[in-house]
Amino acid sequence: MRKIVPLFGGVATLVAALLILFPGLSGAAAQTWEAVNPQIAVGKNIRLEVRLVEADGKAIARLVTAKSTRLDMGPDGMATMTSRLKPVATTTSGALAFETDIVMAGRWALTISGTPAGQSTPISGMVIFTATEKRSETEPPADKAAPAERKPAYYRNPMGLPDISPTPKKDWMGMDYIPVYADEANDPPGTVRISLAKVQRAGVRTEEVTRRNLARTVRAVGTIEPDESRLAVVTAKFGGFVEELFVPVTGASVRAGAPLIRVWIESTEILQKQSDLLTALRGGAGRPEDVDRAVRNLRLFGIPDPVINRLRDTREPVRSIVLTAPADGTVMQKPALVGMRFAPGDTLFKTADLSKVWVRAQVAERDLALVRAGQGVRVILKAYDDQPRDGRVAFVYPELDAPTRTAQIRIELDNRDGVLRAGLYADVEIDTRSDTPVIAIPDSAIIDSGRRRVAFVAKDGGVFEPRDLLLGRRGNGFVEVRRGLAEGERIVVTGNFLIDAESNLRAALATFDPPPDAQ
To answer: b/e map of 483-511 (b: 16 or more CB within 10 Å)?
Structure first.
């Protein structure tokens, strides 16, 4: 009969042989990683310490060399919440120490692989650390009732989820639910309470709401034009021919009454009216009203007084007359040429008095409400950028140019030196300083979501209340507040985005009803 050897005896023999060949194998199988202190705080340069322990819980005192490390948010390792690790020295025998930044409360998983001295097989594992906020950041201010005297109305989810509990509990990451007290529940929606220590770390700075004069420079572009009220046209109310030009070129300066052109009268109607005057004059002094009537008729057709006086003296009809300049100015246009035939109403000369000129500038639609007649203007010409001119807004045109979304304004400038020329390009700066002080706050104090403009009012005890604002004009880094704030209140001017994030969380939670037991 064949002898049978028990199976377990063979296995035991094999294990014994392996332990003789690999003495460190049994120790590696029983070694695990653990945290020296699993409770850590939230903040920068937080210290983490881990060590290897045997199966009986005794720490390994040998030197351990780390092969790889990684710190993630949560026990499952959130790749988007990985934090940096920096090895540091430690006095704990056999331990490894690191520094890291813990950005939020919850459970953090340290994945580590290391090899003890004298052992070839690395030991890998995961160590869980629980990060919590300091009590000073979540407790109410010192001037409020002690925490023991305040009874929470309910507890809200620390991650902002719509989950409310009547009793204390933890979420799936091990974070404590945040208590909401009765006095906090009655605050306006979005109100937050933040400890002084956290306010200082966040760089929150407040400023008192005051009245001030807002000043803003509106910039526009424009061109030089002649003053329309100083333009004049030389024409004739009868047909004829150009016989002679006394001013043969454009750009010439002329004085009022200076001869411009001699014309030959073709119109038989004008000749007939001259004949009426001569007939009345030959009739003697018995009918002076006939003479006056004939003179008025000639004047109505543009016959100048020197020509009428000549008819009185010579008692002979006139076929050519001289047309003179109606005012001082510069010849801008000269369509007339010697020998040219003209019809009644044709322009022969066009003059402009350039001692005063206009700048017609284009103002953007967004700045139009700030511009009004009478404001001071600084005009810088491209041709004479070292000689800025001061003027004033004379008129704001009532129409808006649809393609460019700009409105025209008219600016008057003195040009007695004759330097400014029509068509010159100009940069315009308009001072739009407010006449009376208004409530204004810095731009940095406003959180603009596109639909709402909000500022945070700082109250006693680390309480910050959001206020919806109705804004007005802007200038010099400040914005007028027409509704939402009162003079003397303190508002947050820096660090308000941290408060806004917490306020939005509170406002979202306020939309969920607390549990019946908490009401």
So the answer is: ebbeeebebbbebbebbbebbbbbeebbe
Sheet holding 341-342, edge to edge: 320-324, 259-265, 240-245, 341-342
Handedness of CA 111, 113, 117, 119 (dihedral sign): positive
Q: Indicate if the pLDDT at residue 160 is higher than 70.
A: no
What b/e readout covers 246-264, taking b as 16+ CB neighbours within 10 angstroms?
ebeeeeeebeeeeebbbbe
CB 31 within 8 A of CB 60: yes
Burial zone of 174 (CB within 10 Å; 0-12 exposed, 13-18 middle, 19+ buried) = middle
Answer whether 369's CB lies under 8 Å from 261's CB. no
**Torsion angles phi and psi, residue 47, rounded to 5:** -90, 130
pLDDT band at 242 (very low <50, low <70, confident <90, very high): very high
Q: Which amino acid is at 277?
A: L
To the question of pTM greater than 0.85 for the whole model, the response is: no
For residue range 470-502, what is the model confidence (pLDDT) as tens digits?
Answer: 998 888 788 999 999 999 899 988 877 777 776
Beta bridge partners of 240: 265, 342
Helix (H, G, I), strand (E, B) or coil at 228: helix
